[in-house]
Amino acid sequence: MAEASSHRLVEPRITFNEEQWADWRWRLHNLYAIVTDQGKEIPFRPNDMQTLFLNTFWYLNVILKARQHGITTVVDLLLLDQCVFNSNITAGIIAHNMDDSGKIFRTKVLFPYRHLPDQLRNARTLEKDTGQELVFDNGSSIGVGTSMRSGTLQYLHVSEFGKIAAKYPEKAREIATGSFNTVHAGQYIFVESTAEGRGGRFYDIVKKARKHAELVESGAARLTEMDFKFHFFPWYQKPEYTMNPQGVPIPEEYRRYFLELEVTEGVSLTPGQQAWYVKKSAMLVEEGETDEDMKREFPSTPDEAFQVSVKGTYYGAIMSRLRKKGQIRKVPHIPSQVVNTFWDLGRNDSTAIWFHQWIASENRFIKFYQNDSEDLSHYVKYMQDECPDFIWGRHFLPHDAGNKNLERNEDRVDRLVELGIPRNKIVVIERVEDIEIAHELTRAILPQCYFDIEGCDDGIGCMDSYQKEWDEKQAVFRNHPLHNWASNGASAFHQFALGWSPPALVARKKAKQASWRTV
Prior knowledge:
Elements: H1 18-21, H2 24-30, E1 33-35, E2 41-43, H3 48-56, E3 60-65, H4 71-85, E4 90-94, H5 98-114, H6 118-123, E5 126-129, E6 133-136, E7 141-145, E8 153-159, H7 161-167, H8 169-179, E9 183-193, H9 200-218, E10 228-233, H10 252-265, H11 271-286, H12 291-297, H13 302-307, H14 316-324, E11 328-329, E12 338-344, E13 350-359, E14 362-372, H15 376-386, E15 391-397, E16 404-405, E17 410-411, H16 412-418, E18 426-428, H17 435-445, E19 449-452, H18 457-465, E20 468-471, E21 476-481, H19 487-499, H20 503-509
């Protein structure tokens, strides 16, 4: 943390001593005021979670949190404090939309500054207040917006990055590639959010930070100034999230959930915490939300937070039901039975493949693989190297597999045959003009499917997070898919919904004209 400036900020009659004023922790505990959610103006005193964060933050920080822990507040006060007490500091706060940008500026920057002690505020005067940025007479400034690319920042806070990544993937990419690079090594970045599905830039940063934390814990790596440190603040760490348990029945499904937390995570909840969780979940349902929203907004574990679907998804609700019914679990490969594959083919983006077996009248997905910017030979080699004992059935490709490659003067079916896949095992799915047909057929067949929780982990994430595009101006979801990291995996699954039939049905169709579903 940067040291306090030697510039004297208070007149001698103030009783605080120099050592206290030089301590940013003391300042955050004693100098600032905030507005509560109830609209009350109170002195700021860090709560337990805020104190824990202040004692453990790093240069680069990614923070997965439950709602209402006050992490946004404490980060923004920290940035404001550094600007007030240090010269030539530039701090930036990125909000996920314009409304939140204005609110953060008013309540977490301007209000705390205006309510500093008079002598301090008079000693650190404003040169400019634009309504989005405060510029101080010491050359420091703090601004709030929806993006920041220009200049150099010493402090950057990205609020609700998960929401940005889910609704505005291009904006998230711009923040990660542009705004992050305005902060040099040894300076400070704070990326915080509730979870919004297993994908996107926020999820990627969290996943990488968690893996690095495991390496650090094992002694195989160290945390450097250019590594993100992972912080997680679950709901049960907030003391206020409890209530009198008398008269609050705990349904059986919640009892199982609380027991699983205790057995697998070592989290033992008090009766008061259990009662609060049940009542809060019921309140969300009454407000039109679901128990998945409870896990997203008030997660107990990081994995739980990311397992839930995001708003505007095509298949999120069905995938949630599959989890509850135990259809996302360990699904072993049966060596004696054939494995079918379903592809989405990308040239400059991702190619995705699902691996499927039909066992005891069940559609079992045992593996999922996705990569990008690779030739078809890469995927055939993957099948040969990673699946040497598979008995291959049929390989279902999207309609454009028959398009000619101008450079090679061959289509991708020809290329796969050249690489060793028998032509009579390749099925090219007929083009569907209306994507809603694929969506409806997928919704119809998904309840009949089982997914291996490990082998299909990334593919499950695609199905959880495949969503509609967001219309920022109208504040509604458009009626067509968002093309992002999840769309290729979902499109590959569409080939299954459009083109596959159980063997008995296929045999009965042989004597008939080919279905519209295949060519």
